[in-house]
Amino acid sequence: MTIVSISLNKAMLKELDKLQDSMGFTGRSEIIRAGIRTFVQEEKQKRELKGKQNAILIVVHADEYDDQVARIKHDYENLIKTHLHNRIDENRCMEMFFLDGDSKKVQGITQGFLTDKKMDTVKLIAL
Predict the structure, then answer these.
(1) Distance between CA atoms of 59 and 74, rounded to whole angstroms?
(2) 66-75 vs 103-114: helix axis angle to the nearest 10?
(3) DSSP assignments along 45-101, one per residue
(4) How far apart are alpha carbons 100 and 105 in whole angstroms?
(5) Which end of the chain is less enclosed by CB atoms within 10 A, N or C?
C-alpha cells in the first residue's frame, strides 16, 4: 500500500470526524478511501455511457451564476427534455435536467458543469 499525503482545512476535518461518528468508520483514512472509491465508480460509469442515454443531471449553484447555467444549457437544448429550476434558499439554486440523447452529449453537458468552478454540486444519474 502506498501512502499519500493530503492537506485539508479545519472545516473538512470537522466534516470527516462527523462522518466517522455517524457512519461508523474506524478512521479518516477509511472515509477518504470510501470517497475515492465512490468517485472512481461514478466517473467510470460516466465514461462507459454508450449510444442513446436517458439521465438526470442535478446542478447546485449560487443564485448569481444563473447566467453560467443558461450558457451551458443553451449548447445542449436538443438533449434537455425537461428542466426544473428551484431556489434552495436565498442564495442557492438547484437545476434538474432530464436528458435524452446521445451519450457523448450527456457526457458533454455533464463536463460543462463539472469544469465550471462556479457550480457547487454536479451529479449525473444514468437511467
Answers:
(1) 15
(2) 160
(3) HHHT--SEEEEEEEEEEEGGGHHHHHHHHHHTTTTEEEEEEEE-SSSEEEEEEEEEE
(4) 9
(5) N
Mean pLDDT, 10 residues at a time, over the chain (127 residues)?
90 90 90 88 78 95 95 96 96 97 94 93 92
Q: What is the pTM of this model?
A: 0.73
Q: What's the helix, strand, coil split of the chain in %, to 5?
A: 45, 30, 25
Which residues have a Cβ under 8 Å from the Cβ of 99 and sit 6 or more positions away?
Answer: 53, 54, 55, 56, 57, 76, 79, 80, 81, 105, 106, 109
CA distance 77 to 91: 26
